[in-house]
Amino acid sequence: MGILEKISEIEKEIARTQKNKATEYHLGLLKAKLAKYRSQLLEPSKKAGEKGEGFDVLKSGDARVALIGFPSVGKSTLLSTLTKTQSEAASYEFTTLTCIPGVIEYKGANIQLLDLPGIIEGASQGKGRGKQVIAVARTADLVLMMLDATKGDVQKTLLQKELESVGIRLNTKKPNIYFKHKKGGGIAFNAVCPLTKVDEKLVQLILHEYKIFNAEVLFREDCSADDLIDVISDNRIYLSCLYVYNKIDQISLEEVNRIARQPHSLVVSCNMKLNLDYLLETLWEYLSFIRVYTKKPGQPPDFNDCLILRRGVSVEHVCHSIHRTLAQVLKYALVWGTSAKFNPQRVGSHHIVHDEDVIQIVKK
Ligand SMILES: Nc1nc2c(ncn2[C@@H]2O[C@H](COP(=O)(O)OP(=O)(O)OP(=O)(O)O)[C@@H](O)[C@H]2O)c(=O)[nH]1
Ligand SMILES: [K+]
Ligand SMILES: [Mg+2]
To answer: Domain OBG-type G spans what residues (predicted)?
Structure first.
């Protein structure tokens, strides 16, 4: 039996099995098996001459955003609208056959936007260009999942499943489980809170399925069997995802309102150029961008040139992004803006900067 068949057998068995206390262990074990086979699928093929894991497009700019969606939802139309690059758009499916990069220039940031071929159900198992598209998605800072607003929620459910099955987790955090493989000593299992989804026996069963007999496992939150499998597998990718519903010029206002209220979702019309400003603003938020301006002593800040950084960075990061060696010679920094208690505040390298702060570096 090939891996794909084994996977489908297990999926069927999981679907058949009623979920209750008595089947809990059996289901946990099946899920572990499933994850194991899927991760075998993810391993790069060793066959010589088999080409095309991903499209070779160099990363550039401050962040990379990958456009993922079914054929003809309007991905290329969006790229051509938001960037100077033109990507052919047409009413037939699979117009785009490769990866086409463009650059969104917004509030001083350069965001690399990747137009990609449409993907369909079965993409993760190699249908269409699915595997290559997914390989590109794994390299992105953000997935922009484009959906056809006239088609309800099916596209979203299907695509999410495709991405899940290859280890991509959208808008979720890595489960808070400490896991360490050991050379001996058996399995030391602990939890810092009451667990409602697994018990020690299930954890052991799952670990044994992975041939792990010596390990330290500490649940720091009430995680599930799936969470544990994600942590053991260690090849999961946690990505932010924005669901962008296009073609709202074709649906009712009630439907627009319903969709726009869903989490991580927003509505646009590329053809009518509706709500695209809000899309850019939201992209900026999701990428956690902030702008920091620099200032030389005795001169006004340079507001034409900002540093694009991520929320939560310190003065040390700011130094690094100006010059590789600057942090080493930092004496202190003067900061103006919302991160400062008074203007200017004299701060050290650990001070966290805010959006639109102005900073002056004083060297030793
Ligand atoms: N009504 C409507 N049609 C749109 C909108 N945006 C794009 N389209 C149309 O949808 C069709 C597909 O657009 P594309 O940009 O080629 O879609 P795609 O997702 O890149 O398609 P593939 O490359 O084939 O995967 C074209 O006929 C577009 O004119 C929109 O906002 N409203
Ligand atoms: K198309
Ligand atoms: Mg296209």
So the answer is: 63-288
**Six token digits for residue 1:** 């039996």
The domain segmentation of the chain, as residue ranges, is 3-43+175-233, 63-171+237-286, 290-363
- In a mutational test of the pocket of ligand 1, which residue from 73, 119, 146 has the highest number of ligand atoms less than 8 Å from its CB? 73
pLDDT in tens, 107-164: 999 999 999 999 888 888 777 788 888 889 999 999 999 999 999 889 999 999 989 8
Ligand nearest to the CA of 73: 1
Q: Is 77 in the pocket of ligand 1 (CB under 6 A)?
A: yes
- Computed over every residue of the chain, the mean pLDDT equals 91
Mean pLDDT of 252-272: 97
| Ligand 1 neighbour 72 (Cβ under 6 A) | yes
Distance 75 CA to ligand 2 centre (A): 8
Find the 251 Cα to ligand 3 centroid distance in Å. Answer: 22
Question: Does 63-171+237-286 match 290-363 in CATH topology?
Answer: no
CA 193 to CA 222: how far, in whole Å? 7
Q: Is 216 in the pocket of ligand 1 (CB under 6 A)?
A: no
Q: By alpha-carbon position, which residue is closest to atom 32 of ligand 1?
A: 247
Does domain 63-171+237-286 match CATH 3.40.630.30?
no
Per-residue pLDDT band at 41 (split at 50, 70, 90): low
Alpha helices per DSSP H over 194-339: 200-209, 225-233, 253-260, 276-286, 315-322
Please work out whether the CB of residue 94 comes within 6 Å of at least one atom of ligand 1.
yes
ipTM higher than 0.95? yes
Which one has a higher pLDDT value, 129 or 282? 282
Q: Comparing C-alpha atoms, which of 78, 94, 104 is closest to residue 244?
A: 78
Q: At what angle do helices 3-16 and 24-42 cross, to 10 degrees?
A: 160
Q: How far, in Å, CA of 19 to CA of 24, rounded?
A: 7
pLDDT of residue 56: 78
